[in-house]
What we know:
- This protein is of the alpha/beta class.
- The chain contains two helices and eight strands.
- It starts with 7 loop residues before the first strand and ends in a 7-residue tail after the last strand.
Amino acid sequence: xxxxxxxxxxxxxxxxxxxxxxxxxxxxxxxxxxxxxxxxxxxxxxxxxxxxxxxxxxxxxxxxxxxxxxxxxxxxxxxxxxxxxxxxxxxxxxxxxxxxxxxxxxxxxxxxxxxxxxxxxxxxxx
Length: 126
């Protein structure tokens, strides 16, 4: 049987410096590498405690806004301290909505991507 490991997720961003600042401040993701291609740059971010990478794509012919429409696709992160994390993101004014009794909330990045934040106690069976 073939085995696979999930390695990264890709988001196209419109302003790399703004996105790097957001992901560092909001989720402690740091740039670990970057590659240049004919039509874009790929910048890889990683947290301290995992091997998963967030790949940010920056087109060389950039668009001003990414049309996400009603796209429900999102990335999810587990917060070690849920309420401290929620307080931090509220101060950043990026919380989309929160359901505190379930210990889950969503934030949006500068391009409008939705990011789910759950507590380490969050259960998918609720």
